[in-house]
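User: tokens in, sequence out, please.
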């Protein structure tokens, strides 16, 4: 039997306790683009050291990707992308290797996975859109300079390039009048500048003529 006379046993308090109970939400199991990295692979700073061939297995495990953070895994993934787009084994200065293209692609995919888990994170969504716009500009430059390298880079990095759409301006009578006024002001300003340049040129010619007459 319940004693409703006691404050702790009142029905209102029981309902409030049930309402304030934290809700346990199931975490989404979203696959990551870093899952294809083998856990036995060494970190980027220790991969090329000759001493790693003679160290203990415990040390190798501590220095492997099994104990690595996400930042260290991203370094290894970035190095793998560099090897894909590198033109030759000694290529360290090309645009696709040296620029921010590879690093931006890794960061964009990481932010996409983060936003799938936390869709209300507006700060990281803004950062992702900024990185996408920056990568689009870099790809646009590479497309203008070397189209073959642009195609191979997009294929190796698994990027689908979408050129920026032109800004659709609704032509109105007010906009046409404003544009005509701006053109008229620009033309008048160019005429004033031309008159000032002609006046300065005449002054320079007069000074040069006077200097030649003094020398003679």
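Assistant: Sequence out:
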């Amino acid at each position: 039997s319940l004693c409703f006379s006691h404050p702790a046993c009142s029905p209102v308090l029981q309902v409030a306790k049930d309402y304030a109970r934290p809700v346990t939400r199931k975490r989404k199991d979203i696959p990551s683009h870093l899952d294809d990295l083998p856990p036995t692979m060494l970190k980027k700073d220790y991969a090329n050291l000759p001493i790693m061939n003679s160290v203990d297995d415990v040390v190798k495990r501590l220095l492997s990707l099994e104990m690595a953070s996400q930042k260290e895994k991203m370094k290894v993934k970035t190095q793998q992308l560099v090897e894909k787009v590198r033109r030759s084994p000694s290529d360290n200065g090309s645009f696709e290797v040296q620029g921010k293209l590879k690093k931006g692609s890794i960061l964009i995919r990481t932010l996409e996975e983060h936003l799938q888990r936390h869709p209300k994170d507006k700060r990281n969504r803004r950062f992702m859109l900024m990185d996408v716009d920056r990568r689009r500009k870099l790809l646009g430059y590479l497309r203008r300079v070397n189209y073959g390298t642009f195609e191979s880079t997009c294929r190796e990095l698994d990027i689908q390039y979408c050129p920026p759409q032109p800004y659709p301006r609704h032509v109105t009578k007010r906009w046409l009048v404003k544009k005509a006024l701006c053109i008229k002001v620009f033309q008048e300003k160019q005429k004033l500048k031309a008159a000032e340049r002609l006046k300065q040129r005449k002054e320079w010619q007069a000074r040069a003529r006077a200097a030649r007459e003094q020398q003679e």
